[in-house]
Amino acid sequence: MTIVATRASSLRFNLLALTASRRRCQTRRLRRTIELAGIHDKITEVRDQGYCILKEHFARPLIYACRDAFWPVLLAHLQSRGHEPNRGPHRHFLPMPFEPPCFVPEFFFDDQVLSIVRNVMDDPAVDQWGCDVPLRGSDYQGIHVDYRRPLFAETPDLLLPAYMLVVSFGLVRIVLENGPIEIAPGTHRMPRQEALRAVEAGDIEMQPVPMEIGDILIRHPWALHRGTPNITDTPRALVSIRYVRRWYADSSREVKLLPRAVWESLTPDQRSMMRFPVVN
Fold it and tell me: Domain residues of the chain, as ranges?
C-alpha cells in the first residue's frame, strides 16, 4: 500500500507540474500575441498618422543615468554657446556623447522599436544621435518638416515609402509647460503646400505630444510639426536617434565621434547598423 500511495502521490505531483508548465507556456504565448498585436497597431499608427508613442518603454534607471551624465555637458554647452541658439530663439540642438551611460545599446537596438522601424522601412542604419533643448524664452517654431531637401528635387511632392524615421525620448518629463513637440497627423502623406494650408485653415489640428520618462516617440520626419515654448526654468531635453535606409546618407546634423572601445563592445549586427566615425 505504501508503494502504491507513493506512486499515486508522485503521479499527482507530475500532473500538477505539467499543468503549471502548460499554463506558463500559454501565458507566454498570450503575452507574445498581445505584444505582436500592439506592435502591429503602432506600425499602423506610424504609417497612417505619421507617429506613435510607446508608453513606459525604456527603463527609467537607464534614462536617469543618461541624464545625470549628460547634464554637465549640456550646461557647459549653454554656458559657452547659449548666445548662439541654432534652432530658433533660446532653442539648441547638440550632438549626444557616445560614452556610457549617455549611450547604451538599449537605446539604439530595442527589439520592439526595431520591429516597428523594420516594418515601416526594411533594414535600417543609424546615423544621428542628438538632443533638442528649448529654454525659457523659446517660442513657437514655424510649422515645418525635418530634412527638407527632397530625395528627387524635380518632383518634391512625390509620395515615397519612408526612408527615415526619428525615435525620441525625454530626459525629463515633457509637459505642456516645458515645450512638447506638436505634430499634424497624417500630413506626411500629403503634398507639402496642401498640408500647410490644411493646418493653417484648422482642418488638421496640431497635436501636442507630452511624454513621461520612459515613453518613446517614433515619428515620420515629413509629418508637419513644430517646437513649442518652454516657460519653465529647466531645459527640456529631448534625445533623438535617426534610422535611415542603408542606401541613404546626408550630413544634416553634427554627430560625435564613436569611441573604439564602445564600438568594440557592440555585437557584429549592432556594428553593421552604426554609421558614425570611430575614433581610437
Answer: 1-46, 50-279
pTM: 0.86
Residue 105 CB contacts under 8 Å (≥ 6 apart), including other chains: 266, 270
CA dihedral (216, 218, 224, 227) in degrees, to 10, reads: 20
Question: How far lies 141's CA from each of 88, 105, 128, 183, in Å?
Answer: 7, 32, 22, 12
Q: Which phi and psi (to 5°) does residue 226 adopt?
A: -160, 155
- Bridge-based pairing of strands 182-183 and 258-259 is unpaired
Helical segments of 129-225, H only: 192-200
pLDDT-derived band at 6, boundaries 50, 70, 90: low
Radius of gyration of the chain (CA): 23
Cell, residue 183: 505634430
CATH code, residues 50-279: 2.60.120.620
Calculate ∠ Cα 111-112-116, nearest 5°: 115
Amino acid at 100: P
**How much is the pLDDT for 200?**
96
